[in-house]
Amino acid sequence: xxxxxxxxxxxxxxxxxxxxxxxxxxxxxxxxxxxxxxxxxxxxxxxxxxxxxxxxxxxxxxxxxxxxxxxxxxxxxxxxxxxxxxxxxxxxxxxxxxxxxxxxxxxxxxxxxxxxxxxxxxxxxxxxxxxxxxxxxxxxxxxxxxxxxxxxxxxxxxxxxxxxxxxxxxxxxxxxxxxxxxxxxxxxxxxxxxxxxxxxxxxxxxxxxxxxxxxxxxxxxxxxxxxxxxxxxxxxxxxxxxxxxxxxxxxxxxxxxxxxxxxxxxxxxxxxxxxxxxxxxxxxxxxxxxxxxxxxxxxxxxxxxxxxxxxxxxxxxxxxxxxxxxxxxxxxxxxxxxxxxxxxxxxxxxxxxxxxxxxxxxxxxxxxxxxxxxxxxxxxxxxxxx
Length: 386
Fold this sequence. Notes:
CATH superfamily of the largest domain: Zn peptidases
CATH topology of the largest domain: Aminopeptidase
Largest sheet: 8 strands, mixed
Radius of gyration: 24 Å
């Protein structure tokens, strides 16, 4: 199976149009309208405003009862684009620096092809999601009834990866990507004159002990072989000055791990350490642990299906079926907590063609891989709905 070169040309035009007019978060009126109108022109049933600006398009063929969900993200980032090519961002302070324009174009291409050929037996749900970057879009669609309103047996996602060559594909069963959780610890002491620290409770000393204590969570509370994790304190803020011991210190940071069990251990250990050190020093504390992204955990069965499709599209030598886990995060993880599925990555290119890192003002999606992505979606549907 190969796509018509004309369709690849159209995908390139669609992708560059979306790149020129990026929108962020849930505020995607132009992007959502553009995608929905394309889907309607292909003859699909289109349901808008699921999870605010989310879209689900439905394509049925034959009398099969099986179904599959294919998901792409639509949102951009609040970054000033530094590229100067013709399709660079026309919206100041916003750009597609993560390739969601390409992800949407690939899924549109697959929808166009499948709507014309209908070479499958069952139902395909094309899911276009808002606000992936803040980790809220997938859950918003779920909360709005995504998996109750639509009978989706399994769900699949795909992301480009700079630094991985064009035509390469990587995936793994189990934990592919890490969680992302932020924490904030407020230590309330008793401030005073820097020359008389004995009259107060110095939150700087307490906060410093807490930061050192946090480094024991991974090394002394998690299994060194089975539970990979990172705990990083990234901010230390006080309300003191040169000759004043502050009354308050705020510590902020970030945690990453690959299972929800590890995440629960980190949270419990962190508060225990904070509570113990503050109690010993006579300080008070406030603790918040805010999860933005769950670990992305692929179902082994759907991962096998994804690998089988990828072998046909990319060639077995170009498919890594057991890549190393990645410490980046993805809110497709929320969908995988509800439905079995698989998330994978395809190479965006290396060096000057597709090699610029994600979330960089000089990034651009590599249009040479649009065909790979669309063919992968089509192959997955053909294999699963036969």
